[in-house]
Write a structure and sequence with these properties.
Order of helices and strands: HEEEHHEEHEHHEHHEEHHHH
Number of strands: 9
Shape: globular
CATH topology of the domain at 5-126 and 164-236: Spore Coat Polysaccharide Biosynthesis Protein SpsA, Chain A
Strand content: 5-15%
Oligomer: single chain
Number of helices: 12
Distance between the termini: 40 Å
CATH class of the domain at 5-126 and 164-236: Alpha Beta
Helix content: 40-55%
Length: 304
């Protein structure tokens, strides 16, 4: 299939030729997904990886040295959050998780949605608040419970209103590397990922607040939109962290949210007339559904 220059020309003319799509693959974690739309795009598709044997039909492979030899997840975060440092030959980029498959050329997305803020990110389509995301990450054991507790406790004291904000889904990030406010925000964001949970969706709202940056927000279903689908066929491994819910829920905001969630669940079960055994089965199915929906988040929690 030939190049679709009539579409591809849009984004490049506005943003300049130094624009790329990139992903990261660190620690021999999963197989690289190909991107068929790359054949119709003028933009280079770049994969930053530490795998010297990795080859691809649609990605240009760039070898990198992980920031942390025994922490591939935070090494991946450095590449994901600081494109201006790791892709200095580009002015703008669209980052996508490896489990995301693009359905249309990226130029269209960049041109139509990046905006003057220099930072575009989808909102989380299945979480109401940042606090909900904390509770889900803890419930599914996606990170160390003690680290999550400390982060939530600090945020509850310093940024209680941020915990009530709508969270973001960071499987796709569109950024202008030249924007100083964007670079400052990204530095703050990575600092929080290094200091607290490696689950970067927990700290993005705070980083935006501290940098005074208002992003362009994509209000899309995280699993499927006109320009992407997720998750797509990656066999992943994740760390299993011991859950100690009592200290985590000692934070008042977390306790209230969990109580409200349990009340809503009981009302739902009562309306359906489920018996105790059926309720337990329903709960297990809910957990399976949540795990499936958050399959890409498991990528962030792989064993170091």
């Amino acid at each position: 299939m030939g190049k679709n220059t009539s579409i591809a020309k849009v984004g490049c003319d506005r943003l300049g030729p130094r624009t790329c799509v990139y992903t990261t693959l660190i620690g021999d974690y999963e197989k690289l997904n190909e991107q068929p739309v790359a054949a119709n795009s003028r933009l280079p598709f770049i994969c930053l990886t530490d795998d010297s044997e990795l080859r691809s039909e649609t990605w240009q492979i760039r070898q990198i040295e992980p920031l942390f030899g025994f922490d591939p997840i935070r090494s991946q975060r450095a590449l994901k959050l600081l494109p201006h440092e790791h892709l200095p030959d580009f002015d703008c980029s669209l980052y996508i998780d490896n489990s995301v498959i693009l359905k249309t050329v990226p130029e269209v997305l960049i041109e139509h949605h990046l905006g003057p803020s220099g930072f575009c990110v989808p909102e989380h389509s299945s979480r109401k608040t940042v606090l909900d995301e904390f509770l889900k990450v803890e419930a599914l054991g996606y990170d160390d419970e003690g680290r999550l507790f400390e982060q939530l406790n600090h945020y509850a004291m310093e940024f209680p209103d941020v915990l009530e904000e709508k969270p973001f889904w960071t499987g796709m990030l569109c950024r202008d590397h030249r924007n100083p406010k964007v670079r400052r925000m990204l530095g703050i964001w990575l600092a929080h990922v290094h200091r607290y949970s490696r689950r970067d969706q927990l700290s993005l709202n705070v980083a935006l607040r501290l940098a005074g940056l208002t992003p362009a927000v994509l209000r899309i279903n995280n699993k499927e939109s006109s320009f992407h689908s997720w998750p797509n066929g990656t066999d992943t491994r994740r760390a299993n962290f011991k859950r100690l819910s009592t200290p985590f829920l000692s934070i008042p905001a977390a306790k209230v949210a969990e109580t409200e969630r349990e009340r809503e669940r009981e009302e739902c079960l009562a309306e359906k007339g489920l018996c105790s055994a059926e309720a337990e089965t329903c709960e297990r199915e809910d957990e399976k559904a949540s795990a499936s929906l958050l399959k890409d988040l498991a990528h962030d929690s792989a064993a170091a």
